[in-house]
Amino acid sequence: MRFFVSLLFLLLSASTVAAPKADLWPYWQQYATSNSQKVDHSRWQRLLDKYLVVQPQQTLFRYSRVSDGDKYELDRYLRDLAKLNPHQLNRNEQFAYWVNLYNAQTVKLILDNYPLSSITKLGGFFSFGPWDEKVLTINGKALSLNDIEHRILRPIWRDPRIHYVVNCASLGCPDLQPDAFTASNTERLLEKSATRFINSRKGVNPQGNKTQLSSIYEWYGNDFGSTVQLQKHINQYRQGASITLGKVSYDYNWSLNDAK
């Protein structure tokens, strides 16, 4: 029995390497070119202000400190987003909508199941995490977190920096940003997120003649391009000496980004 459980864990862990491909869900392509409607993300911002802890190499979340009142505020924020029709938003508002929705829903999943050591403990017995579970309904369509990331954000915007702004509540993940996304700050936050991750040890960690990279660059290699293209991308944001991607290893820490 112990052997079976160990083998199952290894198989599930290995499946994370075969990350979902960008597979467009055409329904979500529609947008309003001239609509100036703005989405209110202030509730999400207040939770970030109150519970996010920004450290030099890592941001953490005070899950254990979140009050019942603030859990209600998070639920209300998600319900308000679910009432909106993203088709009626312009492209910039849509991007902020989907990123904030993904990150806020991830925090809710952790709070609903807290305490736990890793988000990978969620989901069914044969699941590695909750990402395929239908956890939201938008425009009458049941959505999973994987739907938002891999069927909406990645194929519509085709920007590798998306991987730096959707947060999986893990220490190895690019940090949850202290600012909620809006139509006006999206480009600044994308650049800030890329810079912060690439200059963190969990993102890019030169070790002599070797470089340890986040597994994100392995799982989503198609989004970052060839080794030469990835090297150029990394050096664009590096604040120290440029790196050369020769001998490369990959690592990822699935422990919860919990501020104890």
TrEMBL record:
Coiled-coil residue spans? none
Which positions carry the signal peptide feature in this UniProt record? Answer: 1-18
Q: Which InterPro entries match?
A: DUF547
Indicate whether Cytoplasm appears among the record's keywords.
no
Question: The DUF547 domain covers which part of the protein?
Answer: 87-198
Is the keyword Mitochondrion in the record? no
Which chain regions cross the lipid bilayer?
none
What PANTHER family does the annotation carry?
ELECTRON CARRIER/ PROTEIN DISULFIDE OXIDOREDUCTASE, ELECTRON CARRIER_ PROTEIN DISULFIDE OXIDOREDUCTASE
Name of the molecule in the record: DUF547 domain-containing protein
Write down the species. Photobacterium rosenbergii
